[in-house]
Amino acid sequence: MSEEKSLNFLEQIVEEDIANGVNDGRVLTRFPPEPNGYLHIGHAKSICLNFELAKKYNGQTNLRFDDTNPVKEDIEYVDSIKQDIQWLGFQWAQELHTSDYFEQIYEFAVQLIKKDLAYVDDSSADEIAVSKGTPTTPGTPTPYRSRSIDENLDLFLRMRNGEFKDGEKVLRAKVDLASPNMHMRDPIIYRIKHAHHHRAGDKWCIYPMYDFAHGQSDSIEKITHSFCTLEFIPHRPLYNWFIEQLGIFPSHQYEFSRLNLTYTVMSKRKLLQLVQGKFVSGWDDPRMPTISGLRRRGYTPASIRTFCERIGVQKRDNLIDVSLLEFCIREELNKTANRVMAVLDPVKLVITNYPADQVEELSAENNQEDPEAGRRMLPFSRTLYIEREDFMENPPKKFFRLGPGLAVRLKNAYIIKGESFDKDENGEITTIYCTYLPESKSGGDNSGLTVKGTIHWVSAAHAATAEIRLYDRLFNVENPDGEEGDFKSYINPDSLQIIPNAFIEPGLVNAKPGERLQFLRKGYFSVDTDSTPEKPIFNRTVTLKDAWAKEVKKN
RNA sequence: UGCCUGAUAGUAUAACGGUAGUACGACAGACUCUGACUCUGUUUGUCUUGGUUCGAAUCCAGGUCAGGCAACCA
């Protein structure tokens, strides 16, 4: 383990700070979600970054809810966010809420007013927008900019006391209306909202804006390194300006680029549209890039953490290939998931030389990658189900499966040879007939034969049935955000295929929700949260790599 | 057309003035009682033009391209 992993740019910053004795080497980060939606894998990047970086440098991480907008926030989201972070494997030092600082933030505002650095503005939203000018032309002061300190103090108190209606007045910082940075053109720092807050109740009718809450909260908590995404870069001068004018603890903001993944969307707004428009079954639909969706899909916390580590941290825009995420979950599940057999698209197979009333119990390895996983017994009989695609009437030369005259190994059982088949009036094969080699039994094969292919099966009389849900990418274009028009028009209509009656090994009816398995040759699956022994439900987490599918595609 | 970011294989990410490396993907092969896994090999890259330097992905200047910013959202 002498291999040195290079540091990402934020780790470099932290190491430099520690080396220079900044904050006495103390490292305290925070993860600051607004409780107005569910966490997605983009948040996971931020969570991993904040928690792992702090831990690496003997620091800690707070969970702070940025709950400054009561009309959009809800306790439901608070709970889901906490669950998701813990599920990912992280524990915050303190659970904090910006709303707990409202009194102090209010005092900060008063302080600003007293320094003549903030004023109450009676202008309408439109008037303020106009007065801010444009990026190329400076803003102009509204008539209220020159109010006296005393008048501002009085008005602000009356705002707090509920004497005005929503939108009637705002408190603005007095910064620089001519700044090339639009965020410095007297930003609004308090607005009136007569709304019930999920945590503060009805105590307040004025609420601070993000720019006058986030940095202040960082400072109150003495956060040393405040990491956020790139779109907050233009806010940083304001972040620093407030710290300077207020003379409070100098937290520092650093920005990194947010995660984008191919074949999905990542903005909360768009995910909400998918949920509300019923394009998916909910926030935890296994096709969603939400943490809860990935969890239900069968992703593990470790695979998501590994993924976040491999994508790195930088400042350039990126679009990560979802195949990397898939690689991370396959890599883990290959080592940990038991192998079982399930036939998704069954066709009957009759072994004509196998005794009609004989049933054998065959021993099967659970996971050859893990000797500890043990073995299980499987019933075998004359009539089986195999995968329809594993038989071809006129197979091409590279087809290593069953066909007339073609021999193949039944996994954990015998070598069989295809003989004949029945078809119905539509030309669809209904039954395949084959013969088996009794001396080719797995574990004791002395047939002297080797076959190129091995296929999976279940005994028809013993198999249980299950609902299997096959998931594919939610969108059929790599970057739905980058396409013309409504992103929803690029939704993949085949992103969910439900197989109501697949055949599974009898023992699988007892699989517990959340359990992860490999269906041999079909992919990794996990037991759905709605699954019961009476009606087992499996979600496909990810397919196996399929060299044959590629071969077929080529021709 | 103001300000702010950024630009290294298909996608990401290293190299911090000294041999452009790694992962995923793709392609080819070996192995295989999973056409899986594993293993081997191949392919493809420093946005551009100048400058500094013995030497530039790296430093400087100009350009190009991409993204962000003018919510009483965060």
TrEMBL record:
GO biological process entries: glutaminyl-tRNA aminoacylation; glutamyl-tRNA aminoacylation
Motif extent ('KMSKS' region): 265-269
EC number assigned by the record: 6.1.1.18
GO cellular component: cytosol
Binding site for L-glutamine: 66, 210
Reaction(s) this enzyme catalyzes, per UniProt: tRNA(Gln) + L-glutamine + ATP = L-glutaminyl-tRNA(Gln) + AMP + diphosphate
Keyword ATP-binding: yes
Membrane-traversing stretches: none
One term of GO molecular function: ATP binding
Domain (Glutamyl/glutaminyl-tRNA synthetase class Ib catalytic) ranges: 27-334
tRNA synthetases class I (E and Q) anti-codon binding domain segment(s): 454-528
Top-level taxon of the source organism: Bacteria
CDD domains: GlnRS_core
Keyword ATP-binding: yes
Limits of the Glutamyl/glutaminyl-tRNA synthetase class Ib anti-codon binding domain: 337-436
Binding site for ATP: 34-36, 40-46, 229, 258-259, 266-268
Subcellular location: Cytoplasm
Motif ('HIGH' region): 33-43
Keyword annotations: Aminoacyl-tRNA synthetase, ATP-binding, Cytoplasm, Ligase, Nucleotide-binding, Protein biosynthesis
Family per similarity comment: Belongs to the class-I aminoacyl-tRNA synthetase family.
HAMAP family registered for this protein in UniProt: Gln_tRNA_synth
Subunit-structure text: Monomer.
Annotated protein name in UniProt: Glutamine--tRNA ligase
Native organism taxonomy: Bacteria, Pseudomonadati, Bacteroidota, Chitinophagia, Chitinophagales
Gene label: glnS
